[in-house]
């Protein structure tokens, strides 16, 4: 009978509402404080007893979505769709969109950042009323999902305006981030204009987004204007501008911005110094790097990991003193994989193979796991026979640990090291294990090794494999195969490769053109060789040398000399190889006086210092023509001992003078 008491029923309803409100508040409080496990526990207990009440509470569900539990989020989404809450509850819908935006950029989604986009798009389409918050949440999800969705995010902006949803500062920040990542300068400039049109105040967030966009698009003038558009600045803005100038190849302006930053009383942080030192490293600017290094002690940053990593990279590339590298590395409080990799690269640059592999062992003993870049750096630096033995050990370590399943970088480095030591069977065995990740670098290394061993026919088989596996071919790869065709003097194969270069759009590549000239000359097809040379728009010295070498090797000595004159007339500067070809041509054609003129012009007119090979060719030319007195006087004054063993003709008499 008590159950029929209306006053008791009302009291029970009120208590249920208070309890529902309290548990939802508890869930929200736990989630806001980062106690995600506690929030999930409370929610699941209530869900088990009152599923309808728990699923419909927008406060609790919105809080739970911040816990980034994907399984629970999909359950909440499913419950919301089943109960029609997506269309009627914009707060819950926007919370779901925010979850999908966070999921698209989370470390767990690194392998598939676009997985969160289809459910987010479906959710967005189901929303009956879309406001600025929902549009911004959807744009954020698309931006974070990566390059494939940036233009889709930008396309939502005009839809947003048509729907009468005014953009917010967060909207512009997200869209500008997409323009910066995709280097979409035109769209970024249009957004800047829209931002001014809407009268959105340029706070530090928007200034940073704008400046970052212009820096990434290479428009440093606009970036500089944005910096000074309002009095508000901070270290993030200045650091972005410094990094932008460094990336655009203007180290002096980057250093000038650093000085302006200090004059503006903005204190640089570790990221500022790391960006400046990295810029100095890229330009091999050792002295400015040393000066910045000295400043670190003033701010107590001499042990900062990111700064020290940049310094290790600087000294490994630019300093001839090994101690600079070692002292900087040992200053790092907690060396990470970047620190160790930079040290290994520096030791390899100094030719310290034994210390390089010792550093790799110490890295593993310290508990820092190498990544693929570490291993590939280590293998690329191997040069001595001892290093080859160590490389075999590294190969064993990779196989034992299934290191990154032998990714392309590590596999190509292993192939390259085996090729350098003429271990082609080992190189091919590694390439075979790379069945699904072989690329043009793999095949180019194999081609180079087979060419060096004189196995040109097998080299050309690599080209057929590349074609069947649909591997991209670049100019450098094709040049290797043309070299094989040239060595075989196979005109049919060479013409087929020439046709391939045209179809692949590589016929204008300089390395391909030079290889074609060499191939046609060795096949005695000088007409085709000249045609290839004439197709080069502005030939450099390498192309001129290729043409002159072709003419000399086919005994067109007079035409080779004419080509030299044409080369100097168009302003191309000859090098040592050019003069070797000219001296050989003059020697063989008996044009001794012209040869003497070329030899004397090397240093006087062109600034090319004669090397031992030039003196040998010059003396051989004088000896063959019987001009022994001039040859003897030349031997008395030359600073380099010529290779008299290879000097032919009557020059042998000079040995007794």
Automatic annotation (TrEMBL):
<dbReference type="Pfam" id="PF13041">
    <property type="entry name" value="PPR_2"/>
</dbReference>
<dbReference type="InterPro" id="IPR002885">
    <property type="entry name" value="PPR_rpt"/>
</dbReference>
<feature type="repeat" description="PPR">
    <location>
        <begin position="234"/>
        <end position="268"/>
    </location>
</feature>
<feature type="repeat" description="PPR">
    <location>
        <begin position="336"/>
        <end position="370"/>
    </location>
</feature>
<dbReference type="GO" id="GO:0009451">
    <property type="term" value="P:RNA modification"/>
</dbReference>
<dbReference type="InterPro" id="IPR011990">
    <property type="entry name" value="TPR-like_helical_dom_sf"/>
</dbReference>
<keyword id="KW-0809">Transit peptide</keyword>
<dbReference type="Pfam" id="PF01535">
    <property type="entry name" value="PPR"/>
</dbReference>
<dbReference type="GO" id="GO:0099402">
    <property type="term" value="P:plant organ development"/>
</dbReference>
<keyword id="KW-0677">Repeat</keyword>
<dbReference type="GO" id="GO:0003723">
    <property type="term" value="F:RNA binding"/>
</dbReference>
<feature type="repeat" description="PPR">
    <location>
        <begin position="540"/>
        <end position="574"/>
    </location>
</feature>
<protein>
    <recommendedName>
        <fullName>Pentacotripeptide-repeat region of PRORP domain-containing protein</fullName>
    </recommendedName>
</protein>
<dbReference type="InterPro" id="IPR046960">
    <property type="entry name" value="PPR_At4g14850-like_plant"/>
</dbReference>
<feature type="repeat" description="PPR">
    <location>
        <begin position="131"/>
        <end position="167"/>
    </location>
</feature>
């Amino acid at each position: 009978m008590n159950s029929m008491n209306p006053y008791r029923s009302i009291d029970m309803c009120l208590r249920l509402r208070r309890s529902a409100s309290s548990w939802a508040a508890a869930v929200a409080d736990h989630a806001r404080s980062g106690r995600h496990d506690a929030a999930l526990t409370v929610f699941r207990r209530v869900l088990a007893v009152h599923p309808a009440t728990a699923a419909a509470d927008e406060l609790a569900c919105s809080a739970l979505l911040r816990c980034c539990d994907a399984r629970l989020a999909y359950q909440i989404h499913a419950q919301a769709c089943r109960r029609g809450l997506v269309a009627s509850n914009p707060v819950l819908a926007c919370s779901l969109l925010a979850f999908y935006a966070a999921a698209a950029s989370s470390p767990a989604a690194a392998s598939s950042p676009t997985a969160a986009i289809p459910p987010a798009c479906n959710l967005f389409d189901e929303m009956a009323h879309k406001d600025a918050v929902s549009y911004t949440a959807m744009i954020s999800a698309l931006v974070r999902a990566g390059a494939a969705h940036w233009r889709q995010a930008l396309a939502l902006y005009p839809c947003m305006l048509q729907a009468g949803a005014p953009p917010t500062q967060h909207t512009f920040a997200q869209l500008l981030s997409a323009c910066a990542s995709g280097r979409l300068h035109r769209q970024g400039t249009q957004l800047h204009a829209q931002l001014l049109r809407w009268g959105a105040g340029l706070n530090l967030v928007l200034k940073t987004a704008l400046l970052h966009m212009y820096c990434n698009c290479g428009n440093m003038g606009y970036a500089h204007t944005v910096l000074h558009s309002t009095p508000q600045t901070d270290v993030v803005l200045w650091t972005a501008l410094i990094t932008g100038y460094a990336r655009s190849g203007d180290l002096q302006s980057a250093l000038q911005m650093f000085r302006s930053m200090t004059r503006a009383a903005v204190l640089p942080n570790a990221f500022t110094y790391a960006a400046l030192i990295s810029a100095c490293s890229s330009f091999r600017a050792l002295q400015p790097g040393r000066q910045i290094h000295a400043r670190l002690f003033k701010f107590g940053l001499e042990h900062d990991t990111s700064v020290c990593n940049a310094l290790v990279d600087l000294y490994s590339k630019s300093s001839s003193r090994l101690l600079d590298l070692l002292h900087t590395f040992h200053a790092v409080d907690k060396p990470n994989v970047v620190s160790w990799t930079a040290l290994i690269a520096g030791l390899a640059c100094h030719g310290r193979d034994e210390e390089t592999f010792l550093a790799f062992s110490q890295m593993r003993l310290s508990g820092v796991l190498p990544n693929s870049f570490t291993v590939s750096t280590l293998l690329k630096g191997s040069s001595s026979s001892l290093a080859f033995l160590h490389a075999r050990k590294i190969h064993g370590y990779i196989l034992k640990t299934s290191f990154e399943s032998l990714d392309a970088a590590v596999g190509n480095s292993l192939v390259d090291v085996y090729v350098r030591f003429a271990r082609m069977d080992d190189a091919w065995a590694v390439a075979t294990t790379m069945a699904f990740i072989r690329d043009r670098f793999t095949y180019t290394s194999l081609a180079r090794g087979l060419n060096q061993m004189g196995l040109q026919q097998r080299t050309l088989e690599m080209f057929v494999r590349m074609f069947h596996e649909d591997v991209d071919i670049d100019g450098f790869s094709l040049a290797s195969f043309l070299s094989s065709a040239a060595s075989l003097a196979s005109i049919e194969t060479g013409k087929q490769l020439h046709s391939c270069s045209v179809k692949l759009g590589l016929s204008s590549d300089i390395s391909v053109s030079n290889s074609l000239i060499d191939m046609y000359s060795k096949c005695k097809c000088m007409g085709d060789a000249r045609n290839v040379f004439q197709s080069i728009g502005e030939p450099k010295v390498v192309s001129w040398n290729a043409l002159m070498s072709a003419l000399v090797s086919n005994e067109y000595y007079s035409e080779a000399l004419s080509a030299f004159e044409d080369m100097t007339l168009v302003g191309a500067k000859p090098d040592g190889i050019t003069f070797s070809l000219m001296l050989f041509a003059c020697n063989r054609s008996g044009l001794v006086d012209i040869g003497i003129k070329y030899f004397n012009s090397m240093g006087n007119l062109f600034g090319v210092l004669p090397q031992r090979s030039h003196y040998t060719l010059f003396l051989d030319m004088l000896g063959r023509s019987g001009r022994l007195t001039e040859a003897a006087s030349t031997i008395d004054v030359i600073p380099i001992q010529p290779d008299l063993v290879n000097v032919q003709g009557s020059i042998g008499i000079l040995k007794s003078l």
